[in-house]
Amino acid sequence: MIAGVLVEISNKNVDRVFEYSVPETLKKDIQVGIRVLVPFGKQTLEGFVLEIKEEKTTGKELRDILNVVDSDVVLTEELLLLGKKIQEKTLASLISCYQVMLPKALKAKNGSKVSIRYESFYRFQPVPNVSFTKKQQEIVNYVEKRTIVSKKELNDFSTSSIKSLIAKGVLLEEKKERYRVQYTESSLSKKELTEEQQKVVSEVVQQTQQNYLLYGVTGSGKTEVYMEIIDFYLKQGKSSIVLVPEISLTPQMIERFQKRFGDKIAAIHSGLSDGEKYDEWRRIARGEVSIVIGARSAIFAPLKNIGIIIIDEEHSESYKQSDPNPRYDAREVAIMRSEYHHCSVLMGSATPSLEAMARAQKGVFHLLMLPHRVNGRSLPPVDIIDMNQEMKHSHGHFSKPLMDAIQERLRRKEQIILLLNRRGYASFVTCKNCGYTFKCPNCDITLTYHKSSNTLRCHYCGYGEKGYRECPECKEESLTNLGVGTQKIEEELQRIFQDVRVLRMDYDTTSRKGKHEEIISDFRDGKYDILLGTQMVAKGLDFANVTLVGVINADTSLNIPDFRSSEKTFSLLDQVAGRSGRSEKEGRVILQTFNPDHYAIALTKNHDYMSFYQKEMEIRRRLKYPPYYYLCDIRIKGKDAMMVFQEALKIKKSLERNLVNMILLGPSNAGVFKINNIYSYHIILKYKKEDSLYPLLKKILDHYQTNVKIKIDIDFNPSQML
Ligand code: ADP
Ligand code: ZN
Questions:
Q1: Atom 18 of ligand 1, nearest CA residue
Q2: Could you tell me the distance, in angstroms and rounded to a whole number, from the CA of residue 550 to the centre of ligand 1?
Q3: CA–CA dist 105, 114 (Å, integer)
């Protein structure tokens, strides 16, 4: 018996299957999809068995497989096929396409640290003619009644008596796997669906294989619809995947699913340790779970017999993996898996991506709509405040209307969400005297001042240094903070509104385990008046007492040099606006901006997604951007800027020579030219259809494979153009 093994090594030269012979002792264990240990040169490596056959294809002597790593298959037949498709689409190495599907604990480099956790139990075993002391008899009585008890349960009994009972053979020690995450039983919290919701559910469950786009305004009850559809398939013995952006995978969301489906769910999120993720993965692989809810990588959950794949907040850029390889799009992978399982994909959003809506308009996706909120209220009215006018008579970051509205909510004991999409204190520090600005020594970007720690930090590489009193250049004490971050706004709120209770939610306050959960439950319990944060506060949250949403500066995302900046701005503003007035009380939204006439801002006034869509499509058509054209971003990277540029030119020439139906841009400096001392240039390709593109790019990748000074990254349909 011969096994074809793909070894876990990140060198592309060995990204192919090697043959090994299977020793007699391992024949019963070796299956396609199992992990094995193999000799490779002088090393011992892990690898995946991709094929089993009788005859070898070379005349060479084959080496033996050393052992199996796990007792079960880790890659199902479906996932093995899927990996190959993803490789074709992304041009990444095959091994990286398989590694991305598995939890960290199953990757060769990290595998040793995380292990299966066991719990000890004692089983009662009747033994004739033994006598017990009084203490021993108590234990025997306890265990005999229950047959089997965990070691923990016997904590209060004497350890020496337990030991003697073990010696007498009355207690048998047993070990059982114990999962690190425990779910409670469901406590059925099903809502009576509205007619609109019911109609969507019926349409979806009627068809067996169809791609749907559900365009439903914020608070229209999409999540409730998802759960009803999942329930339908659950009753047919089928499983479901629900993808949500990491940022909206909040404890609130998980709790809703857990309440309805109990321990049939596995929730995979960044708050879990590697061990917890590993356990969740094994529950899924063993078929103990029917519903998987998680961020991007949950699309690879090893579920069998899938009935529906749901992608919430379909427009989220988090569904595209931008780094490292494979640069896959979970929305595309969802469709690939649905083809295998003959099931439907349902993508939902209040602000669908242009790509998805364009497909829906063409009939490629079937369009479903939930145009109304479930509570029967209209969407909250949005006031757009022109800060150019406001700045004439005020200095802080709060306009008069926003201040008044906050004051009123505080008086009425209602809650407020404030969005400022920039963490830290100030966006950069500069000297008023000589104009010096603080930049990261490794990256081509200004440092951000963090007041609480008195440090200047780089948001790209994490570099940090202590804050300064005087300018390092001219030695004057004229340093000033320009721009504004969440920390500064928090301080200003405290100054303006006495005794206001402000809770800050951003990357800095949520990085510790459990903090995210704590913030959400504290705010829900009314311990705070204002929840202030970055885009984390915009998505997925549902607080009944929030009646005001304020946006400090609606322009932050508009100024990013990216062709999607308008789309991202409209979507962020509409999402955060949707956090207001979700229950009985009427909600209101106030947006502060320096660009009140920009369509991405003006059109949020009436939550007018369709007008935004049409306007933005027109611009994309004129500028030849997606969804009219495909994009491919080729990045050429290295430490020597000049050499990188020369190679980029060579690549461009070769593309020009070989491709006809293609618009070529660049090479140009990447948005951040230097990160961690690595320079990068882009070449951007725009095309509708180009058959020779993939083979040509493969050749280019192969060519640079052995070049240690130049690295090439290829990103098809990049989610951001930085
Ligand atoms: P979306 O996901 O579209 O923003 P949700 O599903 O979160 O909307 O629903 C918004 C709020 O309305 C939630 O508090 C939810 O529990 C409630 N809700 C949804 N559907 C119904 C219904 N049919 N009856 C009563 N309340 C509902
Ligand atoms: Zn840096």
A1: 221
A2: 22
A3: 6
Ligand 1 is surrounded, with C-beta below 6 A, by: 191-194, 197, 216, 218-224, 374, 542, 582
Percentage of the chain lying above the pLDDT 90 cut = 60
Ligand at minimal distance from the CA of 439 is 2
pLDDT category of residue 270 using cuts at 50, 70 and 90: confident
Convert the pLDDT of each residue in 225-256 to its tens digit.
999 999 999 999 999 999 999 877 777 888 89
- Hey, which CATH number is domain 382-423+485-622, 3.40.50.2000, 3.50.50.60, 1.10.8.60, 3.40.50.300? 3.40.50.300
Provide the pairing of β-strand 448-450 with 366-370: unpaired
User: What is the rounded distance in angstroms from the CA atom of residue 103 to the CA atom of residue 336?
Assistant: 21
Q: Report residue 551: phi and psi, to 5°.
A: -110, 120
CA–CA separation, 108 and 48 (whole Å): 11
Taking CA atoms only, the protein residue closest to ligand 1 atom 15 is 221
Indicate the Cα dihedral angle 292, 350, 334, 230, nearest 10°: 40
Domain residue ranges of the chain, discontinuous segments joined by + = 2-106, 118-177, 195-370, 382-423+485-622, 630-716
Residue that is written with structure tokens 């999962």 in the block: 179
Question: pTM of the full predicted structure?
Answer: 0.88
pLDDT of residue 427: 67
For residue 446, which ligand has an atom nearest its CA?
Answer: 2
Mention every residue, 6+ apart, whose C-beta is less than 8 A from residue 10.
93, 95, 96
Tell me how far apart the alpha carbons of residues 508 and 552 are, in angstroms, rounded to a whole number. Answer: 19
Domains 195-370 and 630-716 share a fold: no
How far is ligand 2, taken at its centre, from the CA of residue 669, in Å? 17
* CATH superfamily, region 630-716: Ribosomal protein S10 (3.30.70.600)
Q: How many residues does the chain have?
A: 722
219 Cα: distance to centroid of ligand 1 (angstroms):
6
Give the pairing type, strands 502-505 and 479-482.
Answer: unpaired
Q: Options 3.30.70.120, 1.20.1280.290, 3.40.640.10, 3.40.1440.60; which CATH number does 2-106 get?
A: 3.40.1440.60
**Amino acid (1-letter code) at residue 217:** V
> What is the CATH code for 195-370?
3.40.50.300
The pair of three-digit structure tokens given for residue 352, joined into one six-digit string: 């669908």
- Give me the amino acid identity at 278: Y
Nearest CA to ligand 1 atom 4: 219
- The ligand 1 atom at the shortest distance from the C-alpha of residue 350 is 3
Owner of token pair 């043959």: 19
Kindly give the distance from the C-alpha atom of residue 642 to the centroid of ligand 2, in angstroms, as a whole number: 21
Which one of 215, 231, 260, 542 would you pick to mutate in the ligand 1 pocket, going by the greatest count of ligand atoms within 8 A of its CB? 542
Q: Which amino acid is at 527?
A: K
Q: Where are the alpha helices (DSSP H) in 325-474?
A: 330-341, 354-362, 387-390, 400-412
CB of 375 closer than 8 Å to CB of 191: no
Q: 107: Cβ–Cβ under 8 A, 6 or more apart, which residues? A: 8, 99
Q: Minimum-distance ligand to the CA of 678?
A: 2
Least confident of 73-77, 241-245, 302-306, 666-670: 666-670
Ligand 2 mean position to 713 CA, how many Å?
Answer: 20
Cα–ligand 2 centroid distance for 9 (angstroms): 29
- Measured by CA distance, the residue closest to atom 9 of ligand 1 is 221
Q: Cα of 573 to ligand 2 centre, how many Å?
A: 29
Q: Which bound ligand lies closest to the C-alpha atom of 577?
A: 1
